[in-house]
Amino acid sequence: MYGVVLWSDKKHNRAVIWCEDHRNLAFYKDEENLSEASCFVPGDLVEFDLREVDDMRLAVDPSIVSKHEFPSLPGDLKLAKANLRRNKIAPPNTGAGRQNVVVLHPRGTPGAQRAAESSYR
Q1: Which of 2, 58, 59, 93 counts the highest number of beta carbons within 10 A?
Q2: Which secondary-structure segment (H or E) carries 44?
Q3: Residues 20-54: b if buried by 16+ CB within 10 A, e if exposed
Q4: Distance separating alpha carbons of residues 10 and 41, to the nearest angstrom
């Protein structure tokens, strides 16, 4: 499965991954290499095997497909969440400018740098 890293903890080698199937997030923790810094950062596109244990989805043997491929995604999701809170219930929007859709801005495309900068504010 493919996914985008939304959050990572380098000290404890953990990450949260948004999966391509848009179901629950996948969690990754490398308990064997705690002395090494995590190689994942938010925005990395990763490929991994998925294992479901109870109600938790675990990313197994993840590898980086492309570093910083979606640098603005974590910030875009935070902004979308803030907009939902502000509006309580988002009315359906069938026009071209749908506000309930998070647009992926791959690195090197217009808007990617601007969106990435806004996510760190």
Answers
A1: 59
A2: none
A3: eeeeeebebebeeeeeeebbbbbbbbbebeeeeee
A4: 8
Contact of 42 with 73, CB cutoff 8 Å: yes
5-50 tens-digit pLDDT: 999 998 888 999 999 999 999 999 987 765 444 688 999 999 999 9
The answer to whether the beta carbons of residues 18 and 73 sit under 8 Å apart is: yes
The model's pTM is: 0.69
DSSP state of 111: T
Q: How far apart are CA 35 and CA 24, in angstroms?
A: 29
The closest alpha carbon to 27, from 66, 93, 54, 116, belongs to 54
Rounded to whole angstroms, the Cα distance separating 58 from 29 reads 8
